[in-house]
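job 3f2a | input accepted
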Amino acid sequence: MAKQTPLYPAHLAAGARIVDFAGWDMPIHYGSQLEEHKQVRADAGMFDVSHMLPIDISGAGAQAFLQKLLANNVAKLTEPGKALYSCMLREDAGILDDLIVYFFATDDYRIVVNAGTADKDVAWMRQQAGKLPGGGNVTINPRRDLAIIAVQGPNAQAKVWAALPGSETASSHLKYFQAARFGELMLCSTGYTGESGFELIFPAGRALDIWNALAAQGVAPIGLGARDTLRLEAGMNLYGLDMDESVGPLESGLAWTVDLAAGRDFIGRAALEAHPPTQQLVGLLLEDRGVLRSHMPVFTAHGAGETTSGSFAPSMNASIAFARVPVGVALGDTVEVEVRGKRLKARVTKMSFVRKGKILVQAAN
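job 3f2a | predicted structure (365 res):
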């Protein structure tokens, strides 16, 4: 039986189409995925992401534990509230999950992990801590008592401040990838759309009240369908499609999240250094008529590849995709993608197509 977030009644009341996502009953849209996508790019929308799991990592050994656990280096985080994006790797460098870690002190971190990997992630963390003397001197506390609402779009921050009196004073100073605590509420200047806004983390019992307060400010509910096209335009990976345990971060456009400079021995480092990648993740812009989807064959001058994510991009009026292709493929190259038995031409681009309403990759006329 699928699990439900505290906001499930609100989704039903708003006429959402509900689907199973990673074992959760989640809204795919509330009537029009296309209009919801445009709403976020033009104004503000809110997403129920309470299926994701916050995990509090605390104790005297918390920083040392996370330095071993994660490919990125939490020692970079010195300012309370600062956040870091990282992969958590297996010994063979396969990606167990991608996550965000928030720093408040060297003995006080919060990690947010994906819904589909949450149970596996907690088990892995506890297993790794158990290998360290004294359990790593760390406490791992999954927080299923919390809910998360992401509010995204050019007007998102102003509408959050209007909906939650006092929150502006607490969070107006935040830069991208920072967080602030406001009583029992955590405001994070992170997101998954390429727009500004907040991810709000708070006790689940407040979920409906906060959702309704945001709605009263004109923040529209947005489903997972638009969330997917927004993140694809923004060049943001989705676990399970663009990466999983079978590939490493260097093959997934995530080399920037791997810190090899510090000299620390994190899980998966030896495998990364022993096996240079033969593939890379790139963006594709379809130049013929059609729509790119996941798992389509890609033909290049350097060998075969495959799309990982793909869709029509409403902001660009074009079809785009991510594709894993041989490392010799370069930006600007023309490749062919097999769509419904036909080979269509696509241009290799950077993965980030749209950020803060600005189109970064221009479609052919």
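job 3f2a | The radius of gyration is 20 Å.
job 3f2a | closed
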